[in-house]
Amino acid sequence: GAVVSQHPSWVICKSGTSVKIECRSLDFQATTMFWYRQFPKQSLMLMATSNEGSKATYEQGVEKDKFLINHASLTLSTLTVTSAHPEDSSFYICSAFGTETNYGYTFGSGTRLTVV
Amino acid sequence: AQKITQTQPGMFVQEKEAVTLDCTYDTSDQSYGLFWYKQPSSGEMIFLIYQGSYDEQNATEGRYSLNFQKARKSANLVISASQLGDSAMYFCAMREGGYSTLTFGKGTMLLVSP
């Protein structure tokens, strides 16, 4: 079946540094990649949508200069949290769209980011 | 107005019993899809079941079935014969028309007791 590999699964970084999260579709081409943020005991909040080769579309209230999304190929999308601060600590999860499996959507396993 | 409403923040069920998790939705599109996902404490999103708006029969996948009532705009998930491993957060989600974005409900935490 369709698999999306998300790395790292967890990361701790110092305040002010940048962190890159990768999502890679292993056996299909993802025409669209969605990036979500999730706080404890809350729902997934869509941050941005990216299509291969074009700029990401950010949801209202999401700082595009802080959360840089690159979708350079049909199998790889990255989210970079720049100049991270403790309030950026959260669970980030990607979802790739472009396969008939699971009716189109395959989620990565998520990244737990802690900024100290 | 919320597009996906899950009114049960938490549900308790005993092992081997059936449980229904509620989901109502709001859309003016004729073509839409409804999804249920399970999210255990590890955080991964596990696809459970899908119902298309034009599907005439309720979807079923093993112990999971979706009680689809189109006129009432509800898409409740029924889990039969609950197992301890079913304890998790459950999210209802919708895709509308030609858009590929999924809209999620707030989720229901299910706890299965022995």
How would you explain this protein's 3D organization?
The complex is a heterodimer of chains A (116) and B (114). Chain A has strands at 4-7, 10-13, 19-25, 32-38, 44-51, 57-58, 67-73, 76-81, 90-97, 105-107, 111-115. Chain A is built from no helices and 11 strands. In chain A, strands 2, 4, 5, 6, 9, 10 and 11 form a 7-stranded mixed β-sheet that branches. Chain A has a 4-stranded antiparallel β-sheet with strand order 1-3-8-7, with no helix packed on it. In chain A, β7 and β8 form a beta hairpin. By secondary structure, chain B is mainly beta. Chain B contains no helices and 12 strands. In chain B, strands 2, 5, 6, 10, 11 and 12 form a 6-stranded mixed β-sheet that branches. Chain B has a 4-stranded antiparallel β-sheet with strand order 3-9-8-7, with no helix packed on it. In chain B, strands 1-4 form a two-stranded antiparallel sheet. Chain B is globular. The mean pLDDT of chain B is 95. The chains are: A mainly beta (116), B mainly beta (114). The A-B interface holds A 32, 34, 38, 41-44, 46, 49, 91, 93, 95, 97, 102-105, 107, 109-110, 112 and B 33, 35, 37, 42-45, 47, 50, 89, 91, 95, 100-102, 104-107, 109.
Helix content of chain A: under 10%
CA-CA gap between termini of chain B: 38 Å
The largest pleated sheet of chain A is described as:
7 strands, mixed
For the largest beta-sheet of chain B, the strand count, sense and barrel status come to: 6 strands, mixed
Average pLDDT rating of chain B: 95
Strand content of chain A: over 45%
Radius of gyration from the alpha-carbon trace of chain A, in angstroms: 13 Å
Tally of strands of chain B = 12
What oligomeric state best describes the polypeptide chains here? heterodimer
Q: Main interface pair?
A: A-B, 21 and 20 residues
Task: Give Rg of chain B in angstroms.
Answer: 14 Å
Terminal-residue CA separation of chain A? 37 Å
Task: Tally the helices of chain B.
Answer: 0
| Global geometry of chain A | globular
Q: How many β-strands of chain A, per DSSP?
A: 11
Taking pLDDT < 50 over at least 5 consecutive residues as the criterion, the unreliable ranges of chain A are: none
Portion in helices of chain B: under 10%
What is the count of DSSP helices of chain A, taking H or I runs of 4+ residues?
0
SS-based class of chain A? mainly beta
Low-confidence stretches of chain B: none
